[in-house]
Amino acid sequence: MATWIWKRRRRKAARKYPVPLTMHQLWMVSLSAPVSRDRDASRTTLYPFTRIDDDKAGRWLADQWEITSRDELVGRLDGLARSGYRARARLRLGVEPLAWDAGLYVDITRRGFACGMLGEADAWTALKNIVPAVVRSYASWNEYAEHYLLGRMVWRDNLRGTPDAPAPQAVSDAHLKSLLDPANRASPWNMAPWHAISHPDHTR
After folding, report:
1. Residue pair 13/49 in contact by the 8 Å Cβ criterion
2. Mean pLDDT to the nearest integer, 28-47
3. How many separate helices (H) and strands (E) can be counted in the chain?
4. Which of 8, 43, 59, 192 is most exposed, with the fewest beta carbons within 10 Å of its own?
5. Residue 66: what are its φ and ψ, rounded to 5°?
6. Which pTM was predicted?
7. How far apart are CA 48 and CA 31, in angstroms?
8. Which segment of 16-20, 30-34, 129-133, 164-168 scores lowest on mean pLDDT?
9. What are the distances in angstroms from CA 167 to CA 21, 22, 102, 152, 153?
10. pLDDT tens profile 11-23
């Protein structure tokens, strides 16, 4: 029985991708920290899960975004970078919460890397492309978190009453509170402070 259980365990992502992220790389990956609250989510590696599960990444992209090819992935990323959900939010709230689109953009990029639609170099290039707009828009992780919640609220309201209704807003609120907690040593936002992206990169 023990042998059977061992065979079913998936390889740890950190073993397949052992090189630690630089400060800038961790900062970029951390833009998607609010998106996934799953227990198997990794918030400190380019790979989105703690254990290798390429099929899960591919299924998620197909089910949630109807992405089944590299071209569709690149097109979706371009749409999020250009406008995303911001226009809809502006009509309702008078502000454009880039943080929501940026979080989704980074999350999709990481899953695209996991399932093989993007190579590692292409994934990092994609993440770098979103950085300038995010840095221009916010001055702290707190501001980023506030706009992420605004964007999620608009997205969630559009799904109200549908079979795909998401988790209550309070769940997302609690997750973000944990990420912002200075005492949370596991939070990537504490490991990579907001202004780190504006300083020379270095190993951690």
Report:
1. yes
2. 93
3. 11, 0
4. 8
5. 55, 40
6. 0.91
7. 12
8. 164-168
9. 31, 33, 20, 11, 11
10. 888 888 878 899 9
